Amino acid sequence: MNYFLAACISLLLVAPAVAQWKTTTYTLKGGWNAIYLTGDATYDTPENLLPSSVQEVWRWNPNPTQVGFTASPLIPSSGTAEWSVWKRGIPAESSLTQLIGQMAYLVKCSGASTTSYSVPITQSPQLPANSWVRNGANLLGFPTYKNGSTYPTLSSYFATFPAAIAANTRVYKYVGGDLGPGNPLQVFSPSSERLDATQSYWFSAEVTGDYYAPLEISPSSNSGLAFGRDGSFIKVLVRNRSAAAVTLTLTPVDSESAPAGQTGIVGKVPLTKRSFNATSKAWIETPITAAYSEVIGTDSSVELIFGINRADAMMTAASSEALFASLLRITDSSNLMDIYVPATAQSSSLAGLWVGDVSLTNVSNKVSNGAQATATLTNGVITGLTVDGSGGF
């Protein structure tokens, strides 16, 4: 019996490094500060990214054993696994060469604690992540929502993770100046202390976990809404840890222009919201052009499905190498968290594809032994097919 099959084979293409961009401004003082990078800034060196007022940067490397402290985790100690250091103009003493995202850093600036600096850092936003280690040495930051000029309090933000601020724990913040009794300062009132999203804090809570916000955002891709050349939809699981229903607001946000030397962005990703119509038994694609809401019940989860409109005029007109990038901002009705989910895509391309008709004979569902099939192509059309080592099948 003859079987006619339509074959379509695509070559695996390696995509270039792509990103969307957002600038975060850090308010620093003379002396020691603690900041948190929610995005990746490895496109340039600390020397170029930071103003001359920044003299040193120390990155905290979470380590479950933490045996390298000389005195206290509050005081950085070079040469230990917990710290990577960059010192301006002293490469021989610098092991830190890039600023990676979702990490805490100590930053030393020139001048007295009364001197203030405004330091913008352009970053490629990443999904939030935290790793609490049981020994209690946790230098962490959190994606808190800034309501006007006010951030949420520690007590409200950690209501669903009370172990972080329990009576037997301690929380410290850096306020500038030399390291010592006055810096960092212990936080004694979680009910009034505001949790600044640009800063990082020491938590002595001896717990393990991955808590970063009252709601947990888990896309099916670690890169966020990364559609590539041929992706059509991505699922995002959102878990509500709280004892009250929460309304999410999802807002499309344009990316900033790419820094010099980085891949330029042609336009935003034409995102859609996918929902299933039980009556017509069909998926409905609704373009996301403005903010919309989703309600998540008490201590429950919801699966959100996002699609892409590849028929969008900009996508169809762009070259196959064009990069589309933007962000999806997620906030909650309690004004606690503010998370930016990255979205990227490229136009579909037929490069690396061939299509033809294949004629096969003696097809069997029995596998006798290993075999190799070889196709003969003439002007992109299959004109012959041989099978070696099959034992006749």
How large, in whole angstroms, is the Cα Rg? 26 Å
Q: What overall geometry do the principal axes of the alpha carbons give? A: globular
Q: Level of helix content? A: under 10%
- Portion in strands: 35-45%
Report the strand count. 25
* Unreliable segments of 5+ consecutive residues: 1-16, 67-71
The whole-number mean of residue pLDDT values reads 86
Structure, explained:
- With 393 residues, the chain is mainly β.
- Helices cover 3% and strands 40% of the residues.
- The chain is built from 3 helices and 25 strands.
- The protein has helices spanning 46-49, 154-157, 313-317, and strands spanning 3-10, 22-29, 31-37, 39-40, 54-60, 83-87, 103-109, 116-125, 138-140, 171-173, 185-187, 201-203, 215-219, 225-226, 233-240, 246-254, 271-277, 282-287, 292-296, 301-308, 323-332, 338-346, 353-360, 372-378, 381-388.
- The strands form 7 sheets. A 5-stranded antiparallel β-sheet has the order 13-15-20-17-18, with no helix packed on it.
- β17 (271-277) and β18 form a beta hairpin.
- The protein is globular, with a radius of gyration of 26 Å.
